[in-house]
Amino acid sequence: MKEKILETLVADGAEDFEQFLHNNRNKVDIALNRILWYVILVGPAIALGILAGVFKRTSYSACVVISVSMLIWASVDKMILKRMPHSFVPGILALGGMELLICFMNCSHISIRLTWFLVPLLSLLFCDAKAYIGVSILNYIVMGISTWLEATHYAEIRTDFATPLGGFINIFAGCTIEALVMFAAGYALEKATNGYYRIMIGKYKEAQIQHEQVREQLQILESMSEIYDFVNLIDFTESTEMSLREKNLRKLVIKKGQDHTHMTQGLRGQIVPDMVDDFWAFTDITTVPKRLVNRRSIAGEFINIHTGWFRAQYIRVKGEMNRRPDVVIYTIQNIDSDKRKEEHLIRISMTDELTRLFNRRCYEEDIAEIEKKGLGENLALISADVNGLKTVNDKMGHAAGDELIIGAATCLLSAIGAYGNAYRTGGDEFMAIVHTSDCEAIVRDIQNRTAAWHGAMVKGVSISVGYASHADYPDATIAELETISDQRMYEDKDRYYQRSGKNRRQE
To answer: Are residues 170 and 237 part of one domain?
Structure first.
């Protein structure tokens, strides 16, 4: 995978370098053309030298020829540049014009030497070895022609040259050595420069990729910040925190010995008292890295006195899974509405639809919790059963039967009140888990309430009740207490049928 990425980067780098050369040619052509326009001023400059007596063997007419020639040359080069903006042609033409200028100046007895090597050095701006070699060869040829044309002049003014040919050989040999030295230096410079450009373009490409990755990560973080009420980026290596919800991102220093972030410190006073210690332990940043080892995230749910339930979460950003993370994101998200929905669903699943009492499932879970924690001294179970439900259903319909069940549930719930919870465990069967030392008082209250109840379809309701308390049966289990309360409830039911003279089997 890494090799494929590397190959892609190399290919992209090569393509980018070619694009760089393409764009660079246009810039160099423009710069060289601009130099040609400045070269027009060489004519007036030489004229000032003639006037000052510096150039004694040069004429004013040569100055005019230089300026006019360069004006024409620069104009032609400008037109070609417009037609061929990314070609070598305008640049090479401009360098050729400079070569001819130097040659003409040399033939006009204006002594120049190093200026010959300026033209090849200017060609290095193309960052192309072929262009440099071509211009260097052209420069060497023009320099040779110029030296040959001036050989007769040098033979006349110097006594060490017997003939013009001797003068040519002597001078051109020296120029050849200089040309070779300058060519080698320029070629090495071209290679080094191109290598440097390639490296820089490659790094620029990598920087672009990293910049794009960072930009995408920031977009993700910005999207996350819209979901959460607070989003903090915590860097454990730099000991800093930064809120991603702020428009002006600024880092806050986490001082040595500081065990909670600035955001957490601002929230502590808003947590309900019962949860403050748990919240403070969860948000202790000195333990967060250790708790995130081999984990993507850790979360805790707490209650804000102003906004309700919220979830605090630490999410790993950097670092291997089996090591402590270097950077984490700390988020706060309000989940109060979700909690309310969750509680509503739990309440529905634990509630009897008809009577709104707790259902058998809730009763069994509460009994299991009591078995787990142990029976309290004042714990008692109450069993209750509606009398005559079948008769009401058969004679008056199920709507009347439902009214009877609701009436029984209402009386039972009112009598139990704050003593405990009432449950509908079957069609006409009820249970209650209460905490009281006087079960008889509750049973009497149930009987009084049922005696006073009247419905729209049913005149009255009767409930058989039995109970068993842990105080009366200290060695009994919760299951045994339930059996005892049921037995006593059935005994009460038998007494009801005996008093009423009704046939229990018919009901």
So the answer is: no
Mapped onto helix, strand or coil, the DSSP state of residue 465 is strand
DSSP state of 248: S
Same domain, 174 and 139: yes
Residue 185 and residue 320 in one domain: no
Residue tagged 């033979």 (tokens): 155
Distance CA 370, CA 379 (A): 10
What span, in angstroms and rounded, lies between the C-alpha atoms of 179 and 156? 26
Q: What is the pLDDT of residue 212?
A: 80
Q: Which residues, in sequence order, are CB contacts of 297 under 8 Å at separation 6+? A: 313, 314, 315, 316
Q: What is the CATH number of the domain that holds 496?
A: 3.30.70.270
Question: CA–CA separation, 282 vs 313, rounded Å?
Answer: 9
Q: Are 382 and 442 in contact (CB under 8 A)?
A: yes
Residue 104: CB atoms within 10 A of its CB come to 17
Euclidean distance between CA atoms 463 and 332, whole angstroms: 52
Both 378 and 499 in one domain: the answer is yes
- Name which of 319, 263, 268 is nearest 290 in CA terms: 319
Q: What is the pLDDT of residues 160-211, one digit of tens each?
A: 666 777 777 877 787 888 888 888 888 888 888 877 777 887 777 777 787 7
| Residue recorded with tokens 């040069």 | 58
The closest alpha carbon to 263, from 252, 255, 248, 278, belongs to: 252
Task: Determine the 3-state secondary structure of 172 from DSSP.
Answer: helix
Its sign, for the CA torsion 493, 498, 503, 505, is positive
Which helix (H) or strand (E) segment holds residue 166: the answer is helix 164-227
| Same domain for 422 and 308 | no
Residues 182, 118: Cα–Cα separation, whole Å: 10
* Beta-strand pair 308-316/327-334: antiparallel
Two tokens at 175?
A: 């120029």
Tokens of 171: 């001078």
Model confidence pLDDT, tens digit, residues 47-87: 888 888 878 778 888 889 889 998 999 999 999 989 988 88
Would you call 466 helix, strand, or coil by DSSP?
Answer: strand
User: What's the CA gap between 107 and 118, in Å, rounded?
Assistant: 18
**Does the pTM of the predicted model rise above 0.70?**
no
Number of domains into which the chain is organized = 3
CB-CB neighbours of 383 under 10 Å = 25
Q: What tokens does 155 get?
A: 């033979």
Q: Where are the beta strands (DSSP E) in 260-401?
A: 297-304, 308-316, 327-334, 358-359, 379-386
Of the candidates 137, 95, 133, 132, the residue with the CA atom closest to the CA atom of residue 115? 95
Which residue range(s) make up the domain with 314?
230-335
